[in-house]
Amino acid sequence: MRRLMLAVTAAVAICGSAAAEPVRISVGSYNLNNLPFPVAVGLGLFQKEGLDVTVENFASGGSKTLQALVAGSTDVAVGFYDHTIQMQSQNKSVVGFVLLSRNSGLVLAGGKAATFDPARPETIKGAKIGITAPGSSSDFFVRYYLKQNKIPAESVYLIGVGSGAAAVAALEQGKIDLLVNYDPAATYVEQKGIGKILIDARSDEGAKQVYGGIYPTSVLYATQQYIAKNPGTVQKITNAMVKALRWIATHSAEEIVAVLPNDFISGEKQTYTKAVEKAKAIFSRDGQFDETDVQTPLLVLKSFNDKVDATSIDLAKTYTNAFAVKAQSVSN
After folding, report:
1. Closest CA to 211 of 155, 279, 124, 140
2. Which of 44, 196, 322, 329 is 20 to 30 A away from residue 307, measured at CA?
3. Confidence bin at 60 (pLDDT 50/70/90)
4. What residues pair up with 180 in beta bridges, in sequence order?
């Protein structure tokens, strides 16, 4: 696990000089689904809200971030919404409070020697498939595809390869036959001629073909206990994120890349900028969850996760729009 510690500190004047409020935020990976978060960092939006944010990046995927959250070693996580459903089935209350990406952005790419043909799903048998990490949403993507096509899960080999440059390298070096990942990895695979996109869920149309509906992904979530004890902090975080979402919607890919912390940018900047341009459509504009869209991850998980299938999931307890609604009144 690669750890990146990034301190964002400010002194805020509130009736005099007051210390910034500390908060720990962990990020599942630096794929583009999570882009609004580093944009908020780069624009200094947390500082403006009076927050002293320490960021830890788990490059191996969102499942590690979720573990950190449940263990109490982080306050808030940038991860995927479907994890909140998974946690409820384990009697743990994890709540999404601001939506960043309203769609998955996942692709399945094949290397030059790949023999898998989506027109013949059975050809995926025997493939070594790279995912970000076991228990991640890329893992769920593969398992759902197999289930929908009545292919036993043990017919393929799932290998955790992380995201970004590491994932692309695994495909290029032939360590895996197929890669399920996000941008910027997806764009790098195409631009470098390493392979081709075989299944694309980056658009709404693609998501509907793969999942049967829009699949909300990147969110900020915390335990219900933390939210109940720290509503002011959660509101400040949400204010910063909603401002970042508004800013992304009104600025070009070049302008977005220009404000990002250097550690977030992977690979060659021109190709990365192209990936950002392609990814812009997946981002929420108001940070609010849609009660219809959240049904899709539940249906996907129920198809292969016996524990989720056996649990009466109350989706209303997996997210809240209260903070994002209030943030709408916060000026830019």
Report:
1. 140
2. 322
3. low
4. 108
What distances in angstroms separate CA 325 from CA 235, 240, 328, 330, one per listed residue?
10, 13, 5, 10
Both 133 and 177 in a single domain?
yes
| Chosen domain end from 211, 243, 268 | 211
Question: How high is the mean pLDDT of the chain?
Answer: 88
The CATH number that applies at residue 48 is 3.40.190.10
Pair type for strands 128-131 and 157-160: parallel
* Count of C-beta atoms within a 10 Å radius of residue 152: 9
Which conformational region is residue 287 in: left (phi greater than 0), alpha (psi within -120 to 50 degrees), or beta?
left
- Name the more confident of 325 and 281: 325
The single residue listed with the structure tokens 């002194």 is: 11
Least confident of 59-68, 109-118, 129-138, 186-195: 59-68
Q: In which band, very low, low, confident or very high, does the pLDDT at 2 lie, cut at 50, 70 and 90?
A: very low
Q: What is the pLDDT of residue 6?
A: 40
Calpha distance 141→94 (Å, rounded): 21
Domain count, the chain: 2
Q: Which residues are within 8 A (CB) of 163 and not within 5 positions of it... i.e. 6 or more apart?
A: 29, 30, 31, 59, 61, 132, 181, 182, 185
Q: Cα–Cα distance between 28 and 74 in angstroms, integer?
A: 12
Range of the domain at 79: 5-103+215-327
Q: Is the pLDDT of residue 14 over 60?
A: no
The rounded distance, in Å, linking the Cα atoms of 151 and 106 is 20
DSSP 58: -
Name the percent of the chain lying above pLDDT 90.
Answer: 64
Which of 33, 59, 159, 167 is CA-nearest to residue 111?
167
Shared domain check, 287 and 204: no
Structural domain includes residue 332: no
Exposed/middle/buried for residue 136 (C-beta within 10 Å: 0-12, 13-18, 19+): buried
Q: Which residue has the tokens 């109490």?
A: 72
pLDDT higher than threshold 90 for residue 62: no
Q: What is the per-residue pLDDT for 121?
A: 95
Instruction: Output the six-digit token pair for 318.
Output: 């997996």
Helices (H) and strands (E) in the chain, counts: 15, 13
